[in-house]
Every structure is written in C-alpha cells, then in structure tokens.
Amino acid sequence: MAVRKFKPTTPGQRHKIIGTFEEITASVPEKSLVCGKISTGGRNHAGKMTVRYIGGGHKRKFRFIDFKREKDGVPAVVKTIEYDPNRSARIALLFYADGEKRYIIAPNGLKVGAQLMSGADAAPEVGNSLPLKNIPVGTVIHNIELRPGQGAILVRSAGNFAQLTSREGDYCVVKLPSGETRKILSACKATVGSVGNSDHALESSGKAGRSRWLGRRPHNRGVVMNPVDHPMGGGEGRQSGGHPRSRTGLYAKGLKTRSPKKQSNKYIIERRKK
Hints:
23% strand
C-alpha cells in the first residue's frame, strides 16, 4: 500500500493525497454478500434532523463482513481483495471448501490465493482466527472479541493492531492501540496480524467537495454562532467563547464521562493515554 501525490494543476489537487489501490483485485462486490444501504441524512423516523452536518454523499452498498469467524476447521482461499466504502480497511473475499463465501477485514500482507483457517487448531499465521489462549505471547493481533462468540468489536480500522502481552489465569492481557492495557477472556477469538491499508492515515482529501462525496456537510463552529444557538456563541468581535462545551452545555474538555461503577472497569489494568 502506498499513497499518490499530484501536481497542483488545480487548487483541489495541491494538497490531495490518496491511496494507490494497487492491492485491489476486483471492482464489483460479491452479489450474495451485499445489500442496499439507506442514507438517513441525519433525520429520525419522524423526519426531524437529530444529527447535524450529515447529508448527500455517494450511494453505497453494504458488504456483510464476517466478524465471528465461526467456521472452525474449514479451510478457505482468498479470492479477491476489495475496496469497501463503509470502512477504512480493505476487505478480502474468502471461498470456503464447503462452497460458502464470506468477507473478512483484510490484514496487512494478505495476498490472493492464501489459505486461511479459523478455530483452536489453526496455526498462528496472518489472517487466521483463533482463541487468545492459543496465540503466542507477543503476537500482533486485530479483530478482538470481548465476549466469546460475540464477534470482533476491537481493533478493526485501517493500520491498527493490538499486542498480546501476557496471560493471567483465564484472562489474557492485551495492549490496545489507544494505549489501554486490559484483560480479555482467553476463550475470545482474535485474528493474527495487523489491519491492512496502513497508509490510510497519510491521506488528505485536498478539497471540501470530497467531504460532500462522503456525506459530510459543512460543519460550523460554536464560537461563530449567536448566544441563542450555542453556549459558546456571541461576544463583540472574535471572543474566545468561554469553556469548550457542546451545544447542550456539556463540557468538551476535561470532564470525565465514564461511569465510575462501570462493570468493565475491573478488567482495565492501565487507562489509555490522554
């Protein structure tokens, strides 16, 4: 994966940096694994805008991604690496030996034709999914479950990875991308390797129109509004706006919002870096 820069023949191309798509091998998704995706435009069921700055954008199809990887012991072959408009990572189409097809998040280094396996007997190789208790300590992992059989909910975006650092009884200690260190049940599955498309963080849209293609409308700051519209609005000239806060008055910096009685607090060994 690499990125492309452009000669500034137009103002929009001066700061434009996009991916090369050199690893993409198919331009049309597998028809049996997609469905239409309805855009809300930030409106609820009554048609009232409940989320601002959303609307427009290109039409998308939703790809069903297999985050559970419960087909244990059935070998699969990587058929294609594809682009997914709904996420930053690339996706890989697997053809299983029993004829089933599924999409997974494509890890870094996965190539077309590679053989993948899931389950306790799988080797700890890139793309294979197995319980944390079967993964060697120090291995780089992604797509981590928090409850056995729930499906992966941690470390799924482009370029991310976690590391299995140690074991404590029925739990494994995992260092997450945020810097948080926490205990996760050893029976939970994870996929070996890091998420692909690691250069996604280097991309730059170059123009406002690209944000509109993604369904993002212009976002105006609270300090430029009037007092009736926002707690940080008003004032003569360019005032600072007071304490940073949301439109509903909730402090935006420094206010702790995590519940001190949250059940999962006991599994966190070290909090994320601030």
